[in-house]
Write a structure and sequence with these properties.
197 residues, mainly alpha, 12 helices
Length: 197
C-alpha cells in the first residue's frame, strides 16, 4: 500500500466518525440526534453526510450530549481541514521559498509568551492592566443613547455578551476591551469609523 493510499484511508470526515462511531452503535438516527441537540435536522444531516464541517457551536452541543472532551470535535475537524488543505495546496506550497527567521525577533516572541504564561499562573505581575467595569459599559452605552442591540452590533458582539458585561457577569477582554476603551476616549471618531465598516 503506497503512502498516499495510507493517507487517504486515515483521512476521515468528522461527520462520518460521528455517524459510524457514536451514532450507529447505539442506533441513533440523524433526526433523534437533532432533536436531542435542539437543532434542525437540516443542520445535522449535512455533517453526517460529510458535506458540512462541525462548527464550534456544534462541537459544544456534541460535547455535552456525548460526554467527550471540549476539544475532541474541534480537533477532529481541524485535523481533517488541515489535511485537505495540504493535499489541495501541495504543488503551490512546494514552490514557496521559506523566509529565513530573524532569530532575535523569534527569541523576543518566545520570551513574551513565557512571561504571559507566568502572569497567567500568577508567578509574575502584569506590567499593566486595563479594567472595564460593568457599570462603565452600561454608562457608556447610555451616554451614546444606543440600544443594547445597536451597541452590540457596532461592537460585533452578541447582545447576550453585552448584557453579561453590563450585569457584571463577564468582563470584556481582548479587542472588545480595547474598542470600549477607544470609544470612551473618543466616541465621535470611533463610532463614525465603526458605522462605516
Amino acid at each position: 500500500m503506497s503512502g498516499k493510499t495510507r493517507q487517504k484511508l486515515k483521512l476521515t470526515h468528522p461527520g462520518r466518525i460521528l455517524r459510524d462511531e457514536f451514532m450507529k452503535p447505539v442506533g441513533l438516527s440523524a433526526r433523534a440526534l437533532a432533536k436531542a441537540l435542539y437543532e434542525p435536522v437540516a443542520t445535522v444531516k449535512p455533517i453526517l453526510e460529510s458535506q458540512s464541517a462541525i462548527s464550534a457551536e456544534m462541537a459544544v452541543l456534541l460535547t455535552v450530549y456525548f460526554g467527550t472532551s471540549d476539544r475532541f470535535w474541534i480537533d477532529l475537524q481541524s485535523h481533517y481541514d488541515l489535511q485537505v488543505a495540504k493535499d489541495r495546496l501541495r504543488a503551490q506550497a512546494a514552490r514557496i521559498v521559506p523566509r529565513p527567521h530573524d532569530r532575535t525577533l523569534f527569541a523576543e516572541l518566545v520570551e513574551s509568551m513565557t512571561q504571559m504564561n507566568e502572569i497567567v499562573r500568577g508567578e509574575r505581575a502584569a506590567s499593566r492592566e486595563f479594567h472595564v467595569d460593568a457599570l462603565g459599559v452600561k454608562a457608556l452605552r447610555s451616554k451614546l443613547r444606543l440600544s443594547q442591540p445597536k451597541f452590540a452590533q457596532l461592537l460585533h458582539v452578541d447582545v447576550g455578551t453585552l448584557r453579561n458585561w453590563e450585569q457584571g457577569q463577564r468582563e470584556p477582554t481582548g479587542p472588545a476591551k480595547a474598542l470600549l476603551t477607544a470609544i470612551s476616549r473618543d466616541p465621535t471618531h470611533v463610532l463614525k469609523a465603526l458605522a462605516a465598516a
